[in-house]
Amino acid sequence: MFVDPVIISGKTVRLEPLQEKHFHTLMLIAQQSPTEFRYTSTPINEEQQKTYFGYAFRTKDEGRAYPWVMIDTATGSVAGTTRLYDANWDYRHCLLGYTWFDTRLFGTAFNVESKYLMLKYAFEELKLIRVQMNTDSRNARSLRAIKALGAIYEGTLRSSQINKDGYIRDNLIFSLIAQEWPEVKARLELRIQVKTT
Predict the structure, then answer these.
(1) Is residue 2 a part of any domain in this protein?
(2) Average pLDDT across the chain, whole number
(3) Average pLDDT, stretch 96-115?
(4) Can you give the CATH number for the domain in which 33 is found?
(5) What pLDDT digit, counting tens, does each position of 37-50 carry?
(6) Is 165's pLDDT higher than 90?
(7) Own/partner pairs for 182-186, CB < 8 Å, 24+ apart?
(8) 108 in Cβ contact with 195 (< 8 Å)
(9) Percent of the chain clearing pLDDT 70 (strictly above)
(10) C-alpha span between 100 and 170 (Å, rounded)
(11) Is residue 1 part of a domain?
(12) Cβ(67)–Cβ(81) under 8 Å?
C-alpha cells in the first residue's frame, strides 16, 4: 500500500505528494503549450481541472493511486505532475502515467529520471510484479518515451478511452515486469548519467 507521504529525490527531479497549492502553477504549465498535451488528459480549463485533480485525490484516498508533483531540482520550482494509479494490491500491479511537465524540460534527464524513481519505488519498495503504461495511439512523443524505457508492447485496446475533447481513442498497452527491472534499471541509470554530465 501507499504510505503517505512518499517523497523521492533524484539529481534532476524530486517527487512530492500533489497538493492543492500546486494547481495554479500546474495549470500555467498546461496552458502554455496546449497542443503538446492534446492527446492526454492534461486539464487546460477550470472544469477539466476540477475533474482531473478531483479524480487524482479521490483515487488516492481509496488507496488506488499516488499522485506526485514533479519539482525541478535545479530551480526548486513545480514543473509537472505524474502518478502511479489503478493499483491492484491483490495481484501486485499498477499503471504509471498521467505525466505532463514543462516543455522546456523535454529531452532532458527530467522525465527519464522521474520514471526511474517511480519504477524503483514500485518494484523495490511496493514489491509490485508488473507496471503497465498506456498511451493514445496518436501520441508519438509518449510512444517514443515508453519504448525508450524498455517497456514491452502487449497490444492495442480499441476504443478504450474517451479523451477530454470527446475523441474515442485506441490505447497502446506496454508493461514492465519485476524480472525485467534489474536490466531496465541499469539502462536507465546509464541514460540519466549521460544526460546529466
Answers:
(1) no
(2) 96
(3) 96
(4) 3.40.630.30
(5) 999 999 999 999 99
(6) no
(7) 183/150, 184/119, 184/149, 184/150, 185/116, 185/119, 185/120
(8) yes
(9) 100
(10) 20
(11) no
(12) yes
Asked if residue 78 belongs to a domain, the reply is yes
Domain that holds residue 35: 8-196
C-alpha 137/C-alpha 143 separation (Å) is 8
**What's the pLDDT score for residue 94?**
98
Tens-place pLDDT, residues 116-159: 999 999 999 999 999 999 999 999 999 999 999 999 999 999 99
Please give the distance of CA 178 from its chain centroid, rounded to a whole number. Answer: 18
As for how many domains the chain has, the answer is: 1
What are the helix (H) ranges across the chain? 23-32, 46-61, 109-120, 140-149, 181-196
**CB distance 39 to 138 below 8 Å:** yes
Cell numbers placing 49: 481541472
Taken as a whole, the chain contains a residue count of 197
